[in-house]
Amino acid sequence: MLYGCGDGVQNSPATAPQAVANCGTADECAFQDSLWTPILIRQCGGCHGENGSGTGEFAHAVSSLAYLEATSRIDRNTPANSFLVTKVAGGHNCWVQVAGQTDCAESAIRMTSAINNWVNPAAPPPTSGGSGDLGSVASRLENPSVDTPPVADPIVLETSAEQTQIFRTNLYEPILRVYCSNCHSESAPQAQRQTPYFAQITNPDQPGVVLGADVDTAYAAIVDNRKIDINDPLNSRIYLRLAQDSHNCWNVCVNNDPPVNSDSEIMLAAIVSMQTALQAIAPPPLVEGLDESDTNKGVFPASRGLALDQGQVISGGSRVTSGQIALWEFKEGTGNVARDTSGVAPEIDLVLNDQADWVGGWGIEFNPGGRATASSITASQKLRNQIVNNNAFTLEAWVVPGNVTQEGPAIIATYGFSETDRNFSMGQTLYSYEFLNRNTASGLDVANRANGQPTLITDPDDEDLQATQQHVVMTYDATNGRRIYVNGQFTGDVDTVTGGTLSEWDGNHVFNLGSDVGGANQWLGKIRMVAIYNRALTDLEITQNFEAGVGQKFHLLFKVGHLSPDLPETSYIWFEVAEFDDYSYSFINPSFIVLDPADGSPLTPSSISLNIQGMRIGVNGTLAPVGQVFMNLNKDITMPNLNDAGNARYVTLIDTTSGVTIDGATVDNVPLSATGTIIAKQRGPNADPPDQFYLAFKKFGDIDGATSEPGTAVQLNYNYPAADSALPNTNYIAGIRTFEEINATMSALTGIPITDPAVRNVFLELQQQLPSGAELDGFLASNQMGMAKLAFNYCGALVDNATRRDQFFNVGGTFEFDQAVATAFSTDAKKNIILDSLYNKMVIQDVSSQPLKTDLQTALFGQPDGLFDQLNNNCAADPNCTPDAVRTRNIVKTMCVSVLSSAAVTTQ
Question: In this predicted structure, what is the pLDDT of residue 739?
Answer without folding.
Answer: 65
